[in-house]
Amino acid sequence: MQSGKHKAGLGSQMAYGTCEFFNGGAFVIINAFFTVFLIKAIKMNPALAGTVPLIGHIWDAVTDPMMGNITDRTTSKMGAKRFYMLIGAVATGITFATLWVPFHANGSVTMFIFYVIMYCLFSTGSTILMVPYNGLLPDMIDDYATRSKFSNVRMIWSTLGSMVCGVVPTILITDTRNKTVYLQCGIIFGLFFLITSLITVAGTWEKLHPATKSKLSDSFNHGGSAFRSRSFRLFIGIYLTGQCATDFVSGMAVYYVDDVINGYKNHYVTYLMAAMIIAQLIGMLIWGPVMAKTSKRTTILIGAPIRIASTLLLIPFSHEGASIVPILILAMGIGIGNAATLTSIFAIMADMPDVDELITSVHRPGVVSGISTFARKISSGLSSWLIGILLAAVGYSEKIANAGDRQSLFTQRGIAGIYIFMPIILCILLLVFAYRFPMTGREFNVIKKEISRRKGEDSSTATPEEIKICEKVTGIRYDKLWDPANQWVGNHH
């Protein structure tokens, strides 16, 4: 399908957004339950268990930039991105289920290697699906405000994914030591992810571009060159800190409720995740119009302080027997603040290929998307690894956990500290990156106009103010823009 005969209405927005159900949901299940599955059901050491996702995401350092380059190099009648998304949808559905296969061996090293391989297979499937998906919107829609609408609907689907994947597994997994319930959960959600991804493939379109003439071996050089863009560097800072803060909240939720409040049997995890995610969904409906009226960075500057304040106020309620009501109210505050961050992140991501094109003269949404997707997976892997390391540091014992006994008071306080202070530190960094981010709708329109000039589609001359904006957004001197040599790392001239 080619662009031109498509309406960017609600139906198209909904179809575009459904693939985000996987992205919003899969990592919520993995963050909340994968290390729990390895530690409590498979009896793996916490530090080892936390390292499994990290190695999987180091593997992404190889596959994500390559997938971005492959996408930009491919031509297909249905569009290169949608072609790879079709393959990725099937691969992801299958490999998500196989993550949860119970495997026992005499040596802990053999078990560790098995789950590292399973995680790398899942990561590869996820790469084939998400790298093209993250690069799809710039090839569907040109307009800044319309992209915001599509991104907002995408984030509503992300939140629905988080809601279903944050709540349903806590209902299915009644006993965290029972191996088979994890596999049942994996199969159910693998099927969900397959169906929702296929809806996006069927209901979207993309403008067909000539394939870029680059070799597969150029992938890493091209990927690294995306960081020439000042806006992209700051965007990656926003993306990592915003998502890592969320990963810590979902990744520590089971430990916080089970080991600190001692309320897992009362379904407090279900209530906590539900409160946060319902608030996030409401937040999406609030922040979408706010972002449309202001800018994509303004919502972060409002939302991050709400997250910080709500998290800080959890301190007096983080002990055994605490009332769940104030915790749920504060969780809703975190959810509303989180919605602001998420809405902005994916809206900003859609604009990054345009800045990159002004720098390099080459249309490479795949390369930009590959690096963005890799950054997201690295943040998820680092969060899991850090959670494992920090749990070990505060004395968390997998033997006590497997026996169903309470962790020591020191460990309980340590878990509460991780749950509260890690997201706060990350949200402060998020505010710094968002404050420095140089692009609003006004700057975006200048960038698009300058690209038209460079292509010979606009005969006007850039004003001194427009030149200044181009330099501020790209971080590169005006006379050095639109140079194919800029798509290589270390090519200064």
From TrEMBL:
The chain crosses the membrane at residues 21-39, 83-103, 109-134, 155-174, 180-205, 234-256, 268-287, 324-348, 378-396, 416-435. It holds the Pfam family MFS_2. GO terms for molecular function: symporter activity. InterPro entries: MFS_2 (IPR039672), MFS_trans_sf (IPR036259). One of its GO terms (biological process) is carbohydrate transport. Coiled coil: none annotated. One of its GO terms (cellular component) is plasma membrane. It comes from the Bacteria. Keywords: Membrane, Transmembrane, Transmembrane helix. This is MFS transporter.
